[in-house]
Amino acid sequence: MAGSRVRAGLVPSFFTMANMFCGYFSIILAAGQHFIPAAWLIVAAGILDTLDGKLARLTKTSSPFGVQYDSLADVVSFGAAPAALSYFVYFQQWGTIGLLVSFIPLVFGSLRLARFNVRLKGFDKEFFEGLPIPAAAITISTFVIFAYHFWHGLRWGKAFFFMLLLVSTLMITNIRYEKMPNFSLRTSRGNRIKILIVVVGTLLIFLFPQESFFPIAIIYVLSGIVRAFFKLFSDDEVVENQIQGTQE
């Protein structure tokens, strides 16, 4: 029984290793100016990262070791790999400043993972606090895919710079981001809506990967900001109503 449980626990670890390898190989390809395959490898790492967590919960083999190992893989695939891709595809021409700018996703991503591990309580969570590092990395990499598909090069370099700053900063904020919905027959209306959005988004990405992946990624990035603004204004209205009620 114990032996079968150990073997089951190895399966998520192999997916984590594959995730890390994708990040490592992406860095090598980016250094060799093979930007599109390097970008797609970051996307592949994101898929593997999702699968290893699902498998760990499915096999009931989630553990503190798995959490830490997964975070180490994420630093490579979603911190170092997009940083290297950003540097070689555009910021290399900025010299030392470009080196420092392209370092931002790595340092902010590592801070986000460290905070996540320190605050982790259990293995299930209702939402993400701050933009998840895979989402930030995939937004950066799919921008490269999007630009090369339409313009055969990275146009809008300043937009790329501000987007990199945006997703990096969002990783260390307290802004709430939705997690993947629970695909279950017994689910709430809100969860069913999230499932529908995920299915439609996945279908669009499957049919039009170069054209739709980046717009969908940036919509997810902006969704947290929009939610935060709505919450801020609604909270202000509640406080104002409470003050008026007290004065009356």
Describe this structure in words.
The protein has 248 residues and is an all-alpha fold. The protein has one domain (2-247): Four Helix Bundle (Hemerythrin (Met), subunit A) (Up-down Bundle). It is 79% helix and 2% strand. The chain has eight helices and two strands. It has helices spanning 2-31, 35-58, 64-89, 96-119, 133-151, 157-171, 189-207, 209-247; strands at 127-129, 176-178. A two-stranded antiparallel sheet has the order 1-2. It is globular, with a radius of gyration of 20 Å. It starts with a helix and ends with a helix. 31% of the residues are buried. Mean pLDDT is 85; it is low at 237-248.
Biggest sheet details: 2 strands, antiparallel
Shape field? globular
The end-to-end distance, rounded to whole angstroms, is 68 Å
The amount of helix comes to over 70%
Percent strand equals under 5%
Keywords:
two-stranded antiparallel sheet, Four Helix Bundle (Hemerythrin (Met), subunit A), 248 residues, 2 strands, mainly alpha, disordered C terminus, globular, 8 helices
Could you give a short description of this structure?
With 248 residues, the protein is mostly helical. Helices cover 79% and strands 2% of the residues.
